[in-house]
Amino acid sequence: MRGKTRNLLLIGSVMGVFVCACLLGACGESAQSAHTEHSYDGVWIVETEATCEEDGLRYQTCVYPGCGERKTEPIPALGHDPDAGTITVRATCTEGGVRTRTCNRCHKTITEPTDPIGHDWIPDGESTATCTEPGTQEQICSVCHETRSVDAEPLGHDWRDGEIVPATCTENGKVIRICNRCSEEETEVIPKYNHLWKRTKVITEATCDAGGVEEWVCQRTGCMEREEVQTEKLGHRWQNFYTVDRRPSFEEAGEKSYHCTRCDAKNGTTEIPKLDVNTPIEYEFRTLRNNGEYLFDSAITITVFDETGAEVAKSNGSTLSNGIFRASLLPKSYTVRVTNLPEGYSAETSYEVTPFDPYCNLWLSASPLQGNPAAGTLYKVGSVMHDFTIPASATTTGEAYTLSDLLKTKKMVLLNFWATYCGPCQAEFPILEQVYGLYKDEFAVLAIDTDPGETLSDIREYAAENRLTFPMMRELDLGLSELFSAFSHGSIPFTVIVDREGVICTIKVGTTSSFEELVRPYLSDGYWQHGGNVAESARALEALPAKKED
């Protein structure tokens, strides 16, 4: 029994070992098959440190229990960290040298080649080149004293001014230059100036029907050449209104015509019916400036009073046409008053009219307005300018200018709006300068720079470079706010002409090709048809003839 029992225990032990082995095998297979991809912990562990020349190694381990799989990667070699080192073999002009350095980490000695320093060539003696022909140049190295010969470019002439022959109005001048090296000469032509003519005397006055003769003298220094110039006939300049040549009476008809302002010629002669004390006639009341031009403004009011002071006629916007008011009245003496005039204009207290003169000229005067224009003011032809003063410190000439003072001594003032960046302005300035030189005693020029970014120094420099002598200034220095905007023109250049009463007569937008043609009508003695004294228009009262018996 004991033997049987022993055998049974032995067999049980063997079976237990087999079962355990089977169970352990199944367990191990289960642990390995629990994940299909490794998951690493992200912590690198250095297995071998990197050195200056050799790579190191590091790894991460899979986090699953019982796996132990590793992921490895190299750690790049650090490379040497050399110090500045020292030159152990010095380089020459043509051969390199050696620099020895020590690594701060591994203390290994490192040698590096250095580049040749190259030759430092400097001239050695004079070049064989001339002003016009190439040559050779010997050179020597300042370091190793090696020599070489190189090609040399021509030197070019070294000019100095020799004889100078000034240009004149009719002949070209010249400058003769001489080379300091080879004595060769060259000549530069100085173009002739052409005459700068100015009319100095009228030999024979031109008339409406015949031309005249004028003497013109060149103003350039040293010339003074004279020339007689034939001028064209003036042609008739007819008045804008009728003149009564023969006043009508109760016995006979009168006569009216247009008169030439220059001569005694008449045009368009028309009969004026004879008067009848019981029959109304047409009276014509004309609002005229002192230069003979109608004042076109329907806001003007013309009121007519009879000898008792009673109002017998009055204009309004519909009856005042082109500066003229017409009314049908009995042939009597009347008093006329003019009111509601545009700003800057003035009239006589009253005007007297007789039946013998039914064409009544109501002469009006004007003068520059005081103070600055109101915001939004827009100037136009016929507007009266506001007065302004430019201090001497703000002009290129160093002189002060007041508009009203200029108009006391000049026939007109020309305002030119410009800026240094404006090409068209530059194109017209020589033309303006020439006309200013000829007529500056008769009219004034004020050139106003509209660019707020430019200083007076900029303008002075511009005037000097372009040889401009007429007064120039900035708009900001006028003491008159936004003058440029008051003309409602957004571009430059543009030119404004103000006559002697301060009235704007011309606004020229864009470049002006002939300033002389622009200003000549206002410089003419015939521009002012009326003498400037408005009282001159008052007619002497004449007694009416007795009424004829029926």
Fold and architecture overview:
With 550 residues, the protein is α+β, with helices and mostly antiparallel strands. Among the domains are: 31 residues, no CATH class; 34 residues, no CATH class; 91 residues, Immunoglobulins (Immunoglobulin-like); 139 residues, 3-Layer(aba) Sandwich (Glutaredoxin). The protein has 6 helices and 34 strands. A 5-stranded mixed sheet has the order 22-23-19-27-25, with no helix packed on it. A 5-stranded mixed sheet has the order 32-31-30-33-34. Strands 21-20-24-26 form a 4-stranded antiparallel sheet, with no helix packed on it. A hairpin with a 7-residue loop joins strand 16 and strand 17. The radius of gyration is 53 Å and the shape is elongated.
Helices and strands, with pairings:
Layout (H helix, E strand, L loop, with lengths): L1 H31 L12 E4 L7 E6 L8 E6 L10 E4 L7 E6 L6 E6 L6 E3 L11 E7 L5 E6 L6 E7 L7 E7 L5 E6 L6 E8 L8 E6 L7 E5 L12 E4 L7 E6 L6 E7 L8 E9 L11 E5 L5 E4 L5 E2 L2 E6 L4 E6 L5 E2 L4 E3 L5 E8 L22 E2 L10 E2 H7 L2 E7 L4 H17 L3 E7 L6 H10 L6 E3 L8 H4 L7 E6 L4 E6 L5 H9 L27
Parallel strand pairs: 19-27, 30-31, 31-32
Antiparallel strand pairs: 1-2, 2-3, 4-5, 5-6, 7-8, 8-9, 10-11, 11-12, 13-14, 14-15, 16-17, 17-18, 19-23, 20-21, 20-24, 22-23, 24-26, 25-27, 28-29, 30-33, 33-34
